[in-house]
Specification:
The chain has 4 helices and 2 strands. By secondary structure, the protein is of the alpha+beta class. It has one domain. Helix 2 links the parallel strand 1 and strand 2.
Length: about 80
């Protein structure tokens, strides 16, 4: 994924909240699968409207989406719903 790719993603999004699943426990099956896809990690940070690291495994999407965003006002789920 090149910088050009990330610029195109940003251009096509009204808001891009990038959540990086920061748990790197190699024994977690969802992390093993994510590792096959290659590193994404911090690369979108320069392009996303907001970027934060969530201390969850890749497969724990529910926990990530319910986490309070760094602005302290709402969760990612609430932001998606426009609250």
């Amino acid at each position: 994924m090149s910088d050009d790719f990330f610029r195109r993603v940003r251009a096509g999004a009204r808001e891009w909240i990038n959540v990086n699943a920061a748990d790197r426990n190699p024994s977690n099956p969802s992390n093993q699968i994510a590792e096959l896809g290659g590193q994404y990690g911090q690369r979108p940070q320069r392009f996303a409207s907001q970027h934060f690291d969530a201390p969850f495994a890749h497969g724990d999407f529910e926990a990530m989406i319910k986490r309070i965003l760094p602005d302290g006002r709402n969760t990612l789920y609430e932001r998606i719903l426009g609250r």
